[in-house]
Amino acid sequence: MFTSFVRRVGLAVGIAAAALATGTPSKAQTIAEIEQKGRVTIGVLTGIPPYDTVDSSGAPDGFLVDLARLAAKDLGVEVEIVPVNNASRAAALESGRVDFLIAHMTATPERAKIFLMTNPYGAYEMRFVAAKDMPLSSLDDLKGKRVSVPKGSTQDVAVSGYGVEGLEVVRFDDDALAMQALISGQVDATAAVATVANDVIAKRSLDNLEVKSDVPIFTLYWSMAVRKNATELHQWLNNFIYYQEVTGALNRLHEKWVGVPIPGGKLPTF
After folding, report:
1. Three-state secondary-structure class, residue 208
2. For 178-220, what is each residue's pLDDT tens digit?
3. Cα angle vertex 234, ends 260, 74, to 5°?
4. How many C-beta atoms lie closer than 10 Å to residue 123's C-beta?
5. What is the pTM assigned to this prediction?
6. In the chain, what is the straight-line distance between the N-terminal and C-terminal CA atoms, in Å?
7. Which SUPFAM superfamilies match (predicted)?
8. What domains, with CATH codes, occur in the chain?
9. What value does the mean pLDDT of the chain take?
10. Rg (Cα) of the chain, in Å, rounded?
11. What's the CA gap between 247 and 49, in Å, rounded?
């Protein structure tokens, strides 16, 4: 099972790398170049409340956007927020459309072959979400079920690698569409961040749904990502994340938008 999982990760990333090979990276990668440009362009994942929302003018807002604003402030430049989803975030970075990503990317070894991944700025628990009356106490309960996932995500790789007989993985462009597929009855379950799922269930009064706790998918961390040649920016972001954590700013932002501290206690470094 583990070997299958690793092979699928490698295949997914290999396809992504081939698709990105024709991109033309932006030149604004050193701190001096970003300062000279006077603006940093940051790709931010959208469609995953409570981590993101929109302001009164319809522009992206939320935890990730506030973190992007804080990074730009510490760089001493203006910020341009570029909304991305699971399917588009890697291409946006590799093509030079954005200078770096704050887009809920987990620092897998395969992704680290393509990008420089920072120390984590947040953590999450990935769980199955399904109807309350659907038994889900073991993987065998997924036999013959349809499960939605965001295309190319870590949960896509994980659920696809289970090898459960008759399990059909149904892929969508982002988390919101994968969740909507469950709500509309297109699938039997979805794989989602527990905090996000609980927020959707509460806000939309989906009393028939629940986050399943007996079969955890994984608990992982989110990192920022820069292009391979952006070593100075990568080091600066690691310093930025460390400083925001030790001063309490990261937890304050997380509590402001998500309602709870970042799960898992002290964030790891690597």
Report:
1. coil
2. 999 999 999 999 999 898 899 899 999 999 999 999 999 988 8
3. 65
4. 17
5. 0.73
6. 27
7. Periplasmic binding protein-like II
8. 2-123+222-258 (3.40.190.10), 125-218 (3.40.190.10)
9. 89
10. 19
11. 25
